[in-house]
Design a protein that fits this description.
Elements: E1 2-7, E2 11-13, H1 27-37, E3 43-47, E4 54-58, H2 60-71, E5 80-85, H3 91-101, H4 107-119, H5 124-131, H6 135-144, H7 149-156, H8 162-167, H9 174-183, H10 192-199, E6 204-205, H11 209-214, H12 216-221, E7 226-227, E8 238-239, H13 242-261, E9 267-271, H14 276-281, E10 283-284, E11 288-289, H15 294-314, H16 321-338, E12 342-343, H17 346-349, E13 353-358, E14 364-371, H18 376-391, H19 403-422, H20 425-442, H21 471-486, H22 494-499, H23 503-517, H24 531-540, H25 561-571, H26 574-578, H27 585-596
Parallel strand pairs: 2-4, 3-5, 9-13
Antiparallel strand pairs: 1-5, 3-4, 6-8, 7-8, 10-14, 11-12, 13-14
Helix pairs in contact: 1-2, 4-6, 5-6, 15-16, 16-21, 20-23, 21-23, 25-27
Length: about 600
């Protein structure tokens, strides 16, 4: 072997170079490095069979980088290239030796190298130019360089994955990083998303409903700090001062509440986060509705024509998801327009209130007509007075008998009602449906029915934040809207209306009310699936693939990497899963969603028994 300076124009790639895969990878970055640092390693060459050319048997990427620099006119076409000339050695052996025995720099060493350059006064752009990369990549590497040395050492030994190490860059406190790592269970140490969740559990996600409502500009203007993840471009970051976020949200809600207070309600309360306990304890008054305006009527006619066209093209229940969603949206909009403008009588406002809160999309959500528990008695008395007035009775008329006698006689009357109802299934069906509908569709007072049957409606929003946008929820909402259109608006008229309906209509209303009351949610307090839930699913032939799809946000980012890989293997092929093994958790979640969309794959919890 002899060292020889050879013009670039006389060098050609050797067909015997063993590196085939990735031979062109990273050439621009390598060219940038050579431009700054020069060629740090000689090319291995041998004379070509013809002419005065030399084959590069080892160093093909360096040759490509030099040729790129010549093309960019950064070096001369005949640039003098230092080479090691090998006349007798086997070219394939030389190529294999250089490519096989050369070890790539460990990422942790690259972190340290970038940091030394930065400490020496080099800027992000300058470091990036020297290594043919971007300032963003350099910034990320420098962020990794300030992770706890103990965790970096663990990474060098293979005790923590790179994606998990990157998760720790969210905070700079080494002691806190080490404490959290020590307290994490073994399974969570392999889950970067879980590590981020623990690191940010006292912060507020910038893309949460309250985060979007306040807005990063207003939050930062008030002195708040934002924690950002340099390795997750999709992440909006976290607002670190939760108290400040809540103060800003309350102030913004108060602006809307001030306008609502001029409407004359008994009370108006701001509530950044809805208290479902309070909502369930309250009754809900119903507004009256005016006639649709001319503009609304024209929109109804336009939507009706569009809906009819969709039905003609796709049927009553389109299989095409876009057509199905549009048809539901049309039905909902027509139902809203048909009711006309919402009107709240002064008598209702005098007894009810308004909650001003934040919607799921970070917008203002004003909910009117809530009746607090302490006001329910007053409302019922007013409603009874109104009914008595309509029937000609006097609300304050004194009873003709003593209280004890009234109780005695009414007990006998109750027994008589029980006996007769037990022998009349048709009226019993109406009575049960009436009682359930009052609770589901009217939130009416308890004295509207004498049946001791109530309904509890689970707040699924508390368990799944995206439930309102699900296909199943849209179906139920559409069915409820369609049913409401045919019902009397006054709960006092529901009984007479039901008696006039055919069996099919009564059964449809009963089914709707029963559906609203189903609660099969599994929680920490009740972790096991109800046996009846399985029985009901079997009887209904429920296929959750029609209502639920595994997505990156809704499923894959919330399970371990291995669970995501197992899902891909089960829903497609093992080879497809193996192809994703080296991906970071976020990239894996996105790819898994693509592969399993439309596959019908379901996690075990959602499969038919």
């Amino acid at each position: 072997m002899t060292m020889q300076i050879i013009p670039l124009t006389q060098l050609i790639p050797s067909p015997l170079n063993v590196r085939k895969t990735g031979a062109k990878d990273g050439v621009p970055a390598l060219a940038a490095s050579i431009a700054v640092h020069g060629l740090l390693q000689n090319l291995q060459v041998r004379p070509a069979p013809v002419g005065e050319l030399f084959e590069v048997v080892a160093g093909g990427r360096r040759l490509a980088a030099l040729q790129l620099l010549a093309k960019q006119k950064q070096i001369a076409p005949d640039y003098a290239v230092p080479c090691d000339r090998r006349d007798d050695a086997d070219a394939t052996e030389i190529s294999l030796a250089e490519n096989e025995l050369r070890l790539p720099m460990h990422p942790a060493d690259q972190f340290d190298a970038f940091k030394k350059l930065a400490d020496g006064g080099k800027g992000l752009e300058e470091i990036a130019a020297r290594f043919g990369t971007t300032a963003k990549v350099v910034q990320q590497r420098l962020k990794l360089a300030v992770v706890s040395p103990k965790l970096v050492a663990l990474y060098r030994k293979g005790g923590i994955g790179l994606d998990c190490l990157m998760a720790f860059t969210i905070i700079d406190n080494h002691k806190q990083q080490e404490k959290i790592w020590k307290e994490l269970p073994d399974w969570a140490r392999q889950d970067a998303s879980r590590i981020r969740e623990v690191l940010t559990n006292t912060h507020i996600a910038a893309d949460s409903s309250i985060g979007r409502f306040v807005g990063i500009p207003a939050y930062e203007a008030a002195g708040g700090a934002v924690l950002r993840d340099l390795f997750d471009e999709a992440s909006a970051g976290w607002l670190t001062d939760a108290a400040l976020v809540n103060r800003l949200a309350a102030a913004k809600l108060e602006e809307s509440a001030a306008a609502v207070r001029t409407e004359g309600w008994k009370w108006v309360e701001i509530m950044p986060v809805l208290s479902w306990e309070m909502l369930n304890a309250c009754d809900r008054a119903r507004p009256e509705y005016g006639e649709p305006t001319e503009t609304q009527q024209r929109e109804i006619e336009t939507l009706t024509a569009e809906g009819n066209a969709l039905t003609d093209a796709h049927g009553e229940e389109p299989e095409d998801e876009a057509a199905y969603d549009r048809l539901l949206a049309i039905q909902d909009r027509i139902a809203d327009l048909s009711e006309g403008p919402e009107l709240w009588p002064d008598a209702v406002k005098a007894m009810a209130g308004v909650i001003v809160t934040i919607g799921q999309k970070g917008d203002i959500d004003i909910r009117r007509g809530f009746i607090r528990p302490e006001d329910k008695a007053v409302v019922r008395k007013a409603e009874r007075a109104a009914r008595n007035h309509k029937s000609g009775a006097k609300a304050d008329e004194a009873p003709a008998f003593s209280a004890a006698l009234i109780e005695d006689l009414s007990a006998h009357r109750t027994a008589g009602l029980q006996a007769k109802l037990a022998a009349n299934p048709k009226i019993a069906l109406v009575a049960v449906t009436h009682a359930l509908a009052l609770g589901v569709l009217y939130r009416a007072a308890d004295d509207e029915t004498v049946l001791g049957i109530g309904v509890s409606i689970p707040a699924l929003e508390r368990s799944a934040g995206d439930i309102e946008t699900s296909k199943a929820r849209k179906e139920l909402a559409a069915a409820t809207t369609a049913m409401r259109k045919g019902l009397p608006k006054d709960p006092a008229k529901l009984w007479g209306w039901l008696l006039d309906q055919d069996h099919k209509t009564v059964m449809a209303l009963l089914a709707l009310c029963a559906a609203h009351s189903i609660d099969a949610v599994q929680t920490k307090q009740a972790p096991a699936m109800s046996g009846h839930a399985e029985q009901l699913a079997g009887a209904l032939k429920l296929d959750m693939a029609a209502y639920w799809q595994p997505t990156a946000a809704g499923y894959f980012s919330r399970v371990s990497k291995q669970q995501a890989l197992d899902a891909v293997a089960e829903g497609t092929t093992r080879q497809a899963a193996d192809n994703l093994v080296r991906l970071k958790k976020g990239e894996l979640a996105k790819e898994a969603e693509k592969l399993l969309t439309g596959s019908g794959w379901l996690p075990a919890l959602l499969r038919a028994a």
